[in-house]
Amino acid sequence: NAGVMQNPRHLVRRRGQEARLRCSPVKGHSHVYWYRQLPEEGLKFMVYLQKENIIDESGMPKERFSAEFPKEGPSILRIQQVVRGDSAAYFCASFETGLKTQYFGPGTRLLVL
Amino acid sequence: AQKITQTQPGMFVQEKEAVTLDCTYDTSDQSYGLFWYKQPSSGEMIFLIYQGSYDEQNATEGRYSLNFQKARKSANLVISASQLGDSAMYFCAMRGSPLGSGGSNYKLTFGKGTLLTVNP
Q1: Residues of A in contact with B107 (CB under 8 A)
Q2: pLDDT tens-digit profile of B34-91?
């Protein structure tokens, strides 16, 4: 997975709680993409960030979801007031201009009870 | 908008035989890139192979080759000499701006995947 780290790997939340998912890209990469994979589905794009900027959030639900990629530290995907339908695997992918492909992290499996 | 279609929910192949996984795509972009990823049961996404829309030759990476037919908008993955470890979900994906095109948003659109089972 070329050094992309995500934590936690598994997260269990009750309905109404908050989920915070972290992604540390490959060192030197300044682009981060978040994708969501529902059971039995392919990955779906959520948001694209560069350091301190949200470039494209067209795939992210307008309510309860937010993302950031600060100058220092990991990228954070935050889900407020989780519902059962948020249960999914959330992948981040790290990228830098000139590379052939994005490098995916191992994913965070979110289970909402 | 971009769309990827994988029509084979599941495929079976005997060990050591070759298998083709189908992928068709739809896009209005003139330049694009096509990818295949493997997702084993452990869940990580493993990059296999890439084809740019202007690449004249089909991409190959070891036992993986991409049968790119631009006019038919297909990008099938061929796995030669299948191994038991090839059993996994396989996803076809595309992005709108391939390397060097000047585009800056490389978000990927994925198909629903094909579950490949290699039998001993």
Answers
A1: 33, 45, 48, 56, 59
A2: 999 999 999 999 999 999 999 989 999 999 999 999 999 999 999 999 999 999 999 9
Q: How far apart are CA B89 and CA B112, in angstroms?
A: 9
Cβ neighbours of B50 in A, within 8 Å: 100-101
From the list A42, A89, A107, the residue facing B91 with the nearest CB is A42
Residue of A nearest to B115 (CA): A40
Secondary structure (DSSP) of A19-84: EEEEEEPSTT--EEEEEEE-TTS-EEEEEEEETTEEEE-TTS-SSSEEEE--SSS-EEEEE-S--G
Mean pLDDT of A101-106: 92
Strand partners, B114: B90
CB count, 10 Å around CB of B100?
Answer: 10
- The answer, for A109 touching chain B at a CB cutoff of 8 Å, is yes
CB contact under 8 A, B111 and A42: yes
Tokens of B9: 């929910």
Is pLDDT at B98 greater than 70 in this prediction?
no
Q: Comparing C-alpha atoms, which of A49, A19, A12 is closest to residue A34?
A: A49
